[in-house]
């Protein structure tokens, strides 16, 4: 049993045995779209520095763990974690063997490798293992999902009265004003460049434009989302939702799919519409209705920190977590003392 490492960007830049290995382990373990090779490849191609390593662990002929890791500071390594990736890039068959896997990887990394961090782990994808003398877990954020386990009417009637009444009132007003709403879904690779451009124009109507963080086709965020969505669209797993009020583009969702779920990566709406309408909420209702009726999706994942608006749509909340592994138990105790001081 041993770990092997190669430069990660080259391993995912084109079809290789390494990418095939990742795809096989992904399909047989945590098949989330956030850990699909298309997501990893897009993140590395846009945000990689060249220091990232692809590591894989073999047990006999079988690969039972893989990760994208990067040096954080002297003696410390962690999973590659660009801000646009909701979870750290770690795949493993059995969470109960996490501690041994982390220890053996620490020994296989270039010296001095004293600590290894797994960032933003999802308990739905990898069960939270118990702490040991050299491994500890700690809370990150709470995140929300909607399970599609009933018909839409039952789900919708279980939502708060204020949400349902507010959206019903908005729809009545739009009808009275003769404004027709429509939801469009784009899935083809050749549609993704225009989708990212449209999304960027929506974000420029709001606070992100003022802060310089809005998506733009020519900035690093725009390049990432175009690369990502085109990669997922090529395998039939990208979905971009556009919501129109009349002929005006009012809201958008950028989503990826796989493993029985849809992950809403980004949401934007036209903030110039003011407070009389909530186009993102109107879009969410129509999109959810479609997913419930189609019956092909098991859950809708939001990721990100739970906000008040999430709780209007669901009461399903779970806690994501980080993992720290230390080469020696004394290092863990020392780190804990330093964190408390």
Quick rundown:
The chain has twelve helices and 13 strands. It is an alpha+beta fold.
Key terms:
13-stranded mixed beta sheet, Aminopeptidase, 2 domains, globular, 37% helix, 341 residues
By secondary-structure content and strand pairing, the structural class works out as: alpha+beta
- SS element count, helices: 12
- Count of separate structural domains: 2
Fraction in beta strands: 25-35%
Q: Give the rounded overall mean pLDDT.
A: 93
Low-pLDDT sequence parts = none
Instruction: List the secondary-structure elements in sequence, H or E.
Output: EHHHEEEEHEEHHEHHHEEEHEHEH
Helical percentage:
25-40%
Sheet with most strands: 13 strands, mixed
Number of DSSP strand runs: 13
Which CATH architecture of the largest domain would you pick?
A: 3-Layer(aba) Sandwich
CATH class of the largest domain: Alpha Beta
Roughly how many Å is the radius of gyration?
22 Å
- CATH fold description of the largest domain: Aminopeptidase
Distance between the termini: 39 Å
User: What sort of overall outline do the alpha carbons produce when their principal axes are compared?
Assistant: globular
């Amino acid at each position: 049993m041993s770990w092997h490492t190669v430069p990660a960007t080259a391993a995912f830049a084109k079809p290789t045995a390494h990418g095939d290995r990742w795809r096989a382990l992904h399909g047989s373990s945590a098949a989330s779209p956030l850990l699909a090779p298309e997501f990893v490849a897009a993140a590395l191609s846009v945000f990689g520095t060249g220091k990232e390593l692809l590591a894989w662990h073999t047990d006999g002929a079988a690969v039972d763990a893989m990760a994208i890791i990067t040096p954080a500071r002297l003696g410390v390594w962690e999973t590659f974690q660009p801000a646009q990736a909701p979870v750290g890039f770690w795949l493993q068959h059995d969470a109960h063997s996490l501690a041994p896997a982390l220890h053996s990887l620490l020994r296989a990394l270039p010296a001095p490798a004293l600590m290894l961090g797994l960032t933003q782990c999802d308990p739905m994808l990898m069960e939270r293992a118990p702490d040991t003398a050299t491994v500890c877990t700690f809370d990150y954020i709470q995140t929300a999902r909607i399970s599609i386990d009933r018909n839409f009417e039952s789900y919708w009637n279980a939502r708060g009265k204020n949400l349902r009444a507010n959206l019903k009132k908005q729809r009545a007003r739009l009808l009275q004003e003769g404004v027709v709403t429509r939801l469009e879904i784009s899935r083809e690779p050749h549609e993704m460049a225009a989708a990212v451009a449209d999304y960027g124009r929506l974000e420029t109507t709001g606070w992100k434009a003022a802060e310089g963080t809005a998506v733009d086709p020519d900035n690093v965020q725009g390049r990432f989302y175009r690369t990502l969505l085109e990669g997922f669209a090529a395998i039939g797993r990208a979905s971009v939702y556009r919501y129109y009020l009349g002929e005006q583009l009012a809201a958008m969702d950028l989503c990826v799919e796989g493993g029985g779920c849809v992950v809403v990566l980004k949401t934007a709406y036209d903030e110039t519409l003011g407070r009389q309408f909530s186009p993102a909420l109107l879009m969410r209702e129509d999109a959810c209705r479609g997913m419930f009726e189609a019956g092909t999706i098991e859950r809708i994942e939001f990721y990100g920190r739970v906000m008040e608006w999430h709780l209007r749509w669901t009461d399903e909340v779970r806690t994501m977590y980080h993992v720290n592994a230390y080469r020696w138990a004394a290092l863990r105790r020392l780190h804990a003392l330093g964190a408390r001081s």
